[in-house]
């Protein structure tokens, strides 16, 4: 754990939002299953093979860290939420033949790791939980610092248009408190939930795709691309309801591979994944 980490820097509403522990199961349910499958597919496609060293910054309860450890990677995880760190430890114990190498509470903006020492950095949560641009750039620069020359970054963001589309998907606009949330998201990306409704998420920043690209580039990376994670699949109840059917699942994923490079559809995804490299020296 970085010596400078201060648990009070985590907004209390974020701790409250994740306090139920639901995040450990979220990716195995509903539309989030598409997020999991696509993120795994994209990491597998672009990451160097094991045994490479992965630093999972903001790794939550360890879903991706455990999966990568099972693939033969050496995985280190930090997260700002103590509950998630404990859940990650418990998940790692359930796979004793492929444990996560290191699990600590930590801050994405100040990582306790030597420079140029890892092959892959995952930033699959910090980019939307750090609402200030300066903090996001600090996290990206820490990722850059610890990556070896040629190392790869996977940085996830929530799309600027997610709340609007989710409101249509789930009929949330029937609640008069929801429209002002969407309006602010569309105006400046600053997502706030003044209600106690858990489906309205917690304090966050929602990126326009071009903003995500700009932040990655400003942090020193060689930017490769931004890809949609779920694309429009998450908006289709047909896709969500049938995603566990192997034949249909493959058809859905094949469709995503076909349209993932189409820039006009990028904002329709709930999550974006920026892929970038540290330059070879």
Could you characterize what this model shows?
The chain has 281 residues and is α/β, with parallel strands linked by helices. The protein is built from twelve helices and nine strands. Strands 1, 2, 3, 4, 5, 6, 7, 8 and 9 form a nine-stranded mixed beta sheet that branches. The mean pLDDT is 95.
What does the overall shape look like?
Answer: globular
Radius of gyration from CA coordinates: 18 Å
Helix content bin: 25-40%
Give the averaged pLDDT, no decimals. Answer: 95
Structural class: alpha/beta
What's this entry about, in short?
The chain has helices at 12-18, 23-26, 32-46, 63-70, 82-93, 126-129, 133-146, 162-169, 178-188, 209-218, 237-241, 246-259, and strands at residues 53-57, 74-79, 102-105, 118-123, 147-159, 190-191, 204-207, 222-228, 271-277.
Helix-strand blueprint:
Layout: H1 12-18, H2 23-26, H3 32-46, E1 53-57, H4 63-70, E2 74-79, H5 82-93, E3 102-105, E4 118-123, H6 126-129, H7 133-146, E5 147-159, H8 162-169, H9 178-188, E6 190-191, E7 204-207, H10 209-218, E8 222-228, H11 237-241, H12 246-259, E9 271-277
Parallel strand pairs: 1-2, 1-4, 2-3, 4-5, 5-7
Antiparallel strand pairs: 5-9, 6-7, 8-9
